[in-house]
Structure formats: C-alpha cells, structure tokens
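Fold these two proteins, one after the other.
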Amino acid sequence: MNLKSLTGALVAVALSAPLAQASGFVYVGSGLGTECSQFQNFQQCEYDGSPTIIKFDAGLGVDEINSAFASITGEEWAFTNITTNSDGEILSLTWTYTPNDAADPFITAFAPKYGRGFDMYAGSGYTGSFEVGQGLSHLTFFDTGIPPCTNGDCPPDVPEPTSLILMGLGLFGAATAARRRR
C-alpha cells in the first residue's frame, strides 16, 4: 500500500467516524409498568445510578423536571421525524438535545413509555430515536449521575477518535516530509 492510498483510507475513516457515532444509544430492554415504578417519585427515579432529568408527556410537552437540574427548561430538546397512528398517538420519533450551558446534564439513557410497558435505551449522546408498538405515554431522559464540574475542577476532555486519527495523519505526514528532506 503506497502513501497516497494509506492517507486516503485514513481520511475516509476520519470523515466517516462522526456519522457512525451520531446516535450512541442502544436498546437494552423492556419492562412492565413505568421506568420509575419502583421509586416513590420522579425526583428519586434513576436508571443504573443515573437520575432523571426530564419527562415529556404524550404530546411532547414538559411533564416534570428534576429539581437537581435547575438550568433545564425543556427547550433543549427538539423532536423530528414523528410518526403517529390513526388516533394521533406518537409511534416513533427522533430527538435532539442541545445543552445551553456547562451546567446542563449529559444524557446516558432514555425511556419511551407506551401502553403497559416501556423500553430502555442506554449509551451517550445528543440524539436518538425509537419506535413503539402502541401510542407514546411519556418520554423520560436520564443523566450521567455525575454532577457538573464547578470552580474549574472539570476533568480533562478525552479526545474523540476522529481527532486522534487526524492528529496521527499530521504526525505521519510530518515524519514522511522530514525523512524525504534527509
């Protein structure tokens, strides 16, 4: 493999990586009742140690917001690609979350509730989608369970794979140029 084809392959991988990471959520299971039925109230509800952030009702209006997230209003979410049944009940949608400030939580799970059950999706990211067999009752989002950083005590950012690939390409190119000059 020559240098041009190797560089082309690495660039193709770097450019396709964000597309593959667009939705980092996977279906992890279903349950009966609600996702918070074992808790006394919405404020105490959690999934795998991650507290609830917000719950939207069947019409995608804000139903409840966890008081731990004072910066959340519901306007951080946008819903698109909505399909409904003949009764106007939502069967599927795509959601996008856009945090407004550093205090806004990071989503690690969401649960669409429908009929007598709910589905749970876990992962991380700012967008996701789902499809349910019966009309949506409500949609709940969960945080990381890690409080937002304050007073400059934030952990360092971990570079994403695309950045590492691009940095590697740059180092490889610099080393090749230096070798040719000798």
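Now the second one:
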Amino acid sequence: MKNLIFFLLCAAGFSVTSVVVAQTADPVPIIFDTDFVMPPADDSLALMLALQSPEIEILGITTVAGNDNWERALEVWAEEVLIEPSADPLLEIAMPRFERIMIRAALKRTGGRKRDAAKLLGWGRNTLTRRIAELEMTEAR
C-alpha cells in the first residue's frame, strides 16, 4: 500500500518527503491535482491507478494549471482506456459519463429547474427526467 501511494504521489509530482502515509483500514482520502500538460502520461497513469485502488478515495480532481483543452484531455482518456480493452465498447463507457456531466451542469446553471435544464440540453423535460432515471442520477431527481 505504501509503495502504491508513493508511486502515485511521485507520478503526480508531489514532494514525497512532505507526505505521511498512515496504515489504516479506511481508504486514504486525496485530492488529485493535475495540469494534464501534454503528454500527460505521468498524471494520467497515476490517476488511473488511484481510481482503481480500493485503498484510495479520490475526493476531487483539480486541473487549475495547464493550457490544454477538454477535447485533447478526452482524446488522451480514450487512448488510455483502450490500452487495456474492457468488455464494454468505448462509447458505452464514455457516453453515460458525458451525459451525467452535461445534465449536472445544466441543472446547476438553472438552479435545478428541469424544464430549463432540458431546454439547455436540447431535450424535452420528459427526456431529461427519463435520462436521469436511466443514468441512476439519484442526486438529480
């Protein structure tokens, strides 16, 4: 466990001398800070390992530095997902995540008003309500 966290912190550019890792049964909560500077191999690898680790709880991911756009970050994400192919096709993995993000953003912008959020998304209110249910977005109901 300590070796994994040490690797993640090194790959993410942390000064490991300032990090103390406690041996506990609970996941270690971290906020993952990345700039996704191209090529983002170190941050991306560390993030992929952290997301798959039961010993780590990702509380948030920040991208305050860096100057790349989200399309390039998405492209890199897709390439990394395809390194170790899953049983699910890439779009079946990506589209629900993408829709959840768009729905949350629209609802946030409209203060939770589904009719207005649906309009921002180019949908009707019934479609938004159905997609929220299908995507199991309990926080948006």
